[in-house]
Design brief:
The chain is α+β, with helices and mostly antiparallel strands. Helices cover 59% and strands 12% of the residues. Helix 13 packs parallel to helix 16.
Length: 721
């Protein structure tokens, strides 16, 4: 474990390296002779691409002229188009590569001699003529082209992004490799900036060295990138791939610099393509390993996009066409921007900046990038295979794109886009709110159920601290959501069963849904207040009117014992109803004590044994008057059915709680009945039991146990309503 260095020191060191590269490149690029013109490959020699208005060639040359030969006091040399190639590595064989540098050794010697003359074929088509040119001793900083500053800027930007990311995440090997790869490609780009923006040639002691430095940086960058996918975002194994890749890079450079094989493709370009294939394989394995790690999966998505966007761009525009013998689509000096884009994207992923947003953007970004590249490829293939002019090739490609490519792309996008596990939120909201306004469950319970249904988190835990608004936490790994009561909240972890991160859309939806659920809670409270007031009014009316009349019947029916008993039963039932209406909530243990006393008395009269139990976890739960009244009726009806029809001698009753449900289990050892016939046995009071259970938002079922008798199970929500 490496000791962490203060970020300020790492950043200072990175800045120092960047400044060293900058001043070194400026010094080397501005030191050679100044000719005052730039060249590109021509038909016979080198073509003049640009002439400085204040340079030595201002009055001698103009853009489009071709320089066919050079001569001075040192000697003369006939120029070739290949002498103006920007990148010597474009050669397919080392023979061509070596000949290029040998010719430039001669060119530089001639340029450094006295009485320099150029043989020029003017753009107007006149006969070639010799012109004397007097170079300036130094090119100077002011005359370095914009392409030099562009390349140096790309290299230093990549270096500083790599160092910055590593400075703040030193504990992980991935950012360390990322920073090393950034340093490597920065060295390669800065070296390229010097020799690709030369006027005609460079001092021989610098030219070959800069080319090899460019090769070194590119190889180290590619090798380190392969190791990066092995270690980041999760390590794929204990194999020390980073050290092995350094050895492979060293061996590849040895083969290249010593020219142990004749092909420059095999020594340089094939290894790059091979490592890129390994990158893809490691990325696929990383994808499998992070399927249940949403943060790592989000970082991997952005890493894959950023890395392969740059790699696809550079390899597709520069390396692959050269291997196929077609020539680079874009010159290397222009293609460095692909790596800047890569490093910017990777930096975002490594420092976990807005990963919950990147997780949602990544698929569309990949899609548009891939099909944009495909559009360019179609155009290039049409131009090359049909041998069309560029304008005609563009017209044909636009026709192909309009009639075939765009419809296929849209269909592919529709198929590719994953179905959102949350569903369309605004479509699900009415169903959720419909549940919230139901009275079978409390709004608090409905809110928790709604969060589970919409986001499918792996866990929902109570939040210890108060919260006012939904808040994303740990880069979208968790979502903190307020509860229905002040100071209450929930912490949702791992959305979509652990397959994705929470994002801002989730937080916004929770905020909107929370406001509606709070309104539902107020509605529930108002409804309950109205119900309580109405209960009290009805109870008062029953007591003052019906109760008084029943009491009169009891007193007047003293001579008729049967009528008096019936009147007393009615009065007792009325008192229970009135007490139920006047109650607020009651503990289960209190209701159970009354139910048990009544059941024992009834079983004693009919000669049955009763085993009636209450689970301790349920004892302190509260029942609403409606729940207590309906449970009383259900239990009483079950006992009545057993007494009248079952011919039983043992009854077992159990009250317990399971998964936030109050469970009433009733069983006797009588004659029993088919469960399929239970729904048709209205005479047994089954329909009444079903209705009462359904009124409480629960379910009921009957069955005949293997040892005989009849069993019933009634489940209702345990929270008071």
């Amino acid at each position: 474990m490496l000791k962490e260095i203060p970020p300020s020191r790492v950043l200072s060191a990175g800045l120092a390296i960047a400044m060293l590269l900058f001043f070194t490149s400026v010094y080397i690029a501005s030191s050679p002779l100044r000719l005052g013109f730039s060249v590109e490959q021509g038909k016979q020699g080198v073509r003049v691409s640009e002439v400085a208005t204040d340079g030595p060639a201002a009055q001698l040359l103009r853009a489009g002229d071709e320089v066919l030969a050079l001569r001075s006091s040192v000697g003369s040399l006939q120029l070739e188009p290949w002498d103006a190639v920007a990148e010597p590595d474009d050669a397919a064989l080392f023979v061509t590569y070596n000949r290029f540098f040998e010719r430039h050794r001669q060119i530089w010697a001639i340029l450094s001699g006295e009485q320099l003359e150029l043989q020029v074929l003017s753009a107007g088509g006149a006969a070639p003529s010799w012109m004397r040119l007097q170079p300036l001793a130094l090119r100077g900083i002011n005359h370095l082209p914009w392409l030099f500053w562009y390349q140096v800027g790309c290299g230093l930007a990549i270096l500083l992004m790599g160092v910055s990311a590593w400075a703040f995440v030193q504990s992980e090997r991935g950012p360390r490799l990322y920073a090393l790869a950034g340093l490597a490609i920065a060295i390669a780009i800065v070296a390229s900036a010097i020799y690709t923006t030369r006027e005609l040639s460079l001092p021989p002691e610098w030219f070959l060295t800069l080319s090899r430095i460019n090769q070194f940086g590119a190889m180290l960058f590619a090798g380190t990138g392969t190791a990066l996918f092995w270690y980041y975002p999760t390590q794929l194994g204990r194999f020390p791939l980073a050290r092995v890749m350094l050895v492979i890079v060293a061996l590849t450079l040895t083969v290249n610099w010593l020219q142990l094989i004749p092909s420059l493709d095999a020594a340089a370009r094939y290894p790059l393509l091979a490592w890129f294939a390994v990158d893809i394989a490691f990325a696929i394995q990383q994808w499998r390993c992070t399927r249940r790690e949403p943060v790592e999966r989000a970082r991997l998505k952005w890493l894959i996009f950023a890395w392969f966007a740059g790699a696809f761009g550079y390899l597709g525009m520069v390396v692959t066409p050269q291997v196929m013998g077609l020539g680079a689509i874009a010159q290397q000096k222009y293609a460095w921007c692909f790596f800047v884009i890569s490093y910017l994207g990777i930096a975002l992923g490594i420092v976990r900046y807005r990963l919950f947003d990147l997780d949602r953007w990544i698929l569309l970004v990949w899609f548009w990038f891939a099909f944009g590249v495909l559009f360019i490829v179609i155009d290039a293939m049409l131009v090359m295979t049909l041998n069309l002019e560029t304008s005609m090739g563009l017209l044909v490609s636009l026709a192909v794109v309009g009639w075939a490519y765009l419809p296929i792309r849209q269909a592919f996008l529709t198929w590719l886009m994953p179905k959102d596990g949350r569903g369309v939120l605004h479509k699900r909201l009415p169903d959720i709110l419909q549940q919230a306004f139901r009275h079978e469950r409390s709004v608090d319970d409905q809110w928790s159920r709604a969060l589970q249904a919409v986001f499918n988190p792996l866990t929902i835990a109570p939040l210890p601290e108060p919260l006012d608004v939904p808040t994303l936490r740990e880069n979208g790994l968790r979502l903190a959501v307020p509860g229905m009561q002040p100071g209450q909240g929930f912490l949702l972890s791992y959305a979509g069963g652990g397959a994705r991160l929470f994002d801002r859309q989730d937080a916004d939806f929770c905020g909107q849904a929370l406001a509606l659920f709070l309104y539902a809670r107020e509605y529930h409270q108002s409804y309950q207040s109205g119900v309580i007031s109405e209960r009290k009014r009805v109870a008062r009316d029953l007591h003052d009117d019906v109760g008084a009349r029943l009491l009169s019947v009891v007193y007047r029916a003293r001579s008729d014992e049967e009528l008096q008993g019936l009147a007393r039963d009615c009065l007792r039932e009325l008192r229970e109803v009135i007490q139920g209406l006047q109650k607020d909530v009651v503990l289960v243990r209190q209701s159970f004590s009354r139910w048990q006393s009544e059941a024992r008395e009834r079983c004693r009269l009919f000669g049955l044994s009763l085993d009636m139990r209450l689970e301790e976890a349920l004892a302190d739960e509260r029942l609403s008057p409606r729940q207590e009244r309906n449970l009383s009726r259900i239990l009483r009806e079950c006992l009545t059915n057993t007494f009248k029809h079952a011919r039983a001698d043992v009854i077992a009753v159990e009250f317990k709680v399971e998964h936030n449900l109050l469970v009433l289990r009733y069983q006797d050892n009588g004659a029993g009945m088919l469960a399929s016939a239970a729904g048709q046995a209205a005479g047994l009071g089954v329909l009444g039991i079903q209705e009462r259970c359904r009124e409480l938002g629960g379910e009921v079922c009957w069955w005949t146990p293997l040892d005989g008798g009849l069993a019933m199970r009634c489940e209702i929500p345990v929270k008071a309503n």
